Amino acid sequence: MPLSPQSNEFLSRFLAQRFNRLHRSIMVQGQNGPDATESLALFIERYVDLAADIVATLKNVTNSIGTNSEMAQQTAMAQQFLDIPLTIVSRQQGLEAQMYQAYLACRLVEELNDVIHTHFSSPVISADITKSNLIVHHIIGEPFANQLDAAIQSLSDRLVRAIETDSVLQSELRVYCSSVNKQGMPNYPCLAEACHIYLVFNTEKSASD
Q: What is the mean pLDDT of the chain?
């Protein structure tokens, strides 16, 4: 969804209000104040685009594995996260609401990757999104981000149960993971690092002060 100038302006104000709280954990390399806020806004815009790309890739994977499995249902749910009307997701404007949607989708993909890697020694998609998700978690803030994580964790638990009980799904995932290990898969490098935004723990920050 293209951003209007009003949406960009609103996001910048949204981030500026939170920046003093974020500065102990989120570092924008070589920038501070308004410049850092603008860099965070650009990062979130690219994060929203990344979510759509990753979900599209996940749908292609699901089609190759089977369309009736628990994994297919979760893929459909990831797409639904992105398709929910913004007025339902948030009363706020533009990109802030899209950030919540993208976070749900990216966290779901992150959990899918972790579960599949644990069981089959291969991620379902080569996507380095953990740091980006952690940064967006901090930007969203608690307790809301924790509530979103809890919803994703319940889906992850459901996928684990399906893998352990559905022999067809087990077989399809085993074949898929063996295939992608030989042929490769689309790769999504860390967006946060590409934007020069880093998650710095308090102990690291204190040591550098």
A: 80
